[in-house]
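Morning, I've got a small favour to ask if you have a moment. It would help a lot if you went through both lines with me. Thanks so much in advance, here it is.

***
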Amino acid sequence: MRLESAADEGKLSLEDIMRVVTDIRDSQAKYEKSFNKACESMDSQLIENTKALKAQQEQNEKLNQLIESITSENKELKKKVRALEDRLENIEQYSRSNCVEIQGIPVTSNEDVLTIVKDVGKALDLTVSDTMVDACHRLGAKQSGNNPPGIIVKFVRRLDKEEFLQRRRVKRTLSTRHIGATDDRPIYVNESLSPARRALYALARKYQREKNFKFLWVRNGKIFLRKEEKAPVRVITREEDLD
């Protein structure tokens, strides 16, 4: 036999060979044991990671549901806030329902605003008595350019305010010379608008110019647009209505 021949030749004894084989087998057994242990550790870690991932997914689902709930609630709150803003703006505009604004009359020293209002009424062929006017004064807001601050007039009755505006629509050439001034500046009489409604009216004027709408007017605090004579009338209540 070869092992015996090797032993006989003095290279390795049979016992040495058996010892080497045993060492290899023991080493292999240790390696397999270590490998199996490592595999078991990896399996355990994989299970833990799977559990952690599942828990994270469940947490993400809860967060997504919470985000959806908050988003929905936020939309509802925005609707309520918008409704309240519209309501307050309508109330503010309603408080001006008896008011008109007169623009274009220069400021003079020691002027009597009520007398100016009466003079404008006389120029419109309308007698404005003291009992018709609840209050009138110059506007304190800064005017653009060299335009003088306007005059706001609050009538006791809305009918008187409507009559005042109607007379101005009939007399299209009203100017300062019609109230005894030496110069000749146009006088404008318009409904008094709340700040929000005034800003909306400015946007509507810009839209009118850009889209070539023929008519834009205000009646009872509401803003109206019409493309041409026979076109339908559009009521502008907010900026979105111009889209």
